[in-house]
Amino acid sequence: MAQSASSLETDILVQLSYTAAKNFVANYYTDLQAARTKLKGYYTATATVSWNGNNLSGGAADVEKLHTEMPAATYEVQCFDAQPLMPNGRGQCSILLVTNGYVKFGNEKDAPSRGFSETITLEPDTSTPPKFLISSQSTRFVF
């Protein structure tokens, strides 16, 4: 049975979203642990961020301040899901990314792990395709 063109396009968008999200997750969480000075390059200039229910309204400056003032942390992403959002008419689409895992703050081996969940909207970076940037992010710790 042949697939319709729209079904095939949807399958391709889902696969491309998964691949882009997989690369993003690998790079972002590595830099979040070890190279926080690179993190501002992951966000759009007008990104909105909610950190455990606290909205950051200062754009990229607030995001950078959050990451530089945060204690050392080890992230273990257990799983992620990525779904394409509406194409923008130029052959690009945004991606809805949900990650779940554990985070341990501090350098102590016995520091407690906490669960976390993040919902991120990734927008295509028109200046550097096929790169994606965070346009919105909501991080919650699971207690």
TrEMBL record:
Swiss-Prot/TrEMBL GO biological process terms: mRNA transport; nucleocytoplasmic transport; protein transport
Classification via Pfam families: NTF2 (PF02136)
Entries under PROSITE patterns matching the protein: NTF2_DOMAIN
Chief localisation class: cytoplasm
Keyword Protein transport: yes
One Gene Ontology CC term in the entry: nucleus
Protein purpose: Has a role in nuclear-cytoplasmic transport of proteins and mRNAs.
PANTHER family, alphabetized: NUCLEAR TRANSPORT FACTOR 2
Protein name (database record): NTF2-related export protein
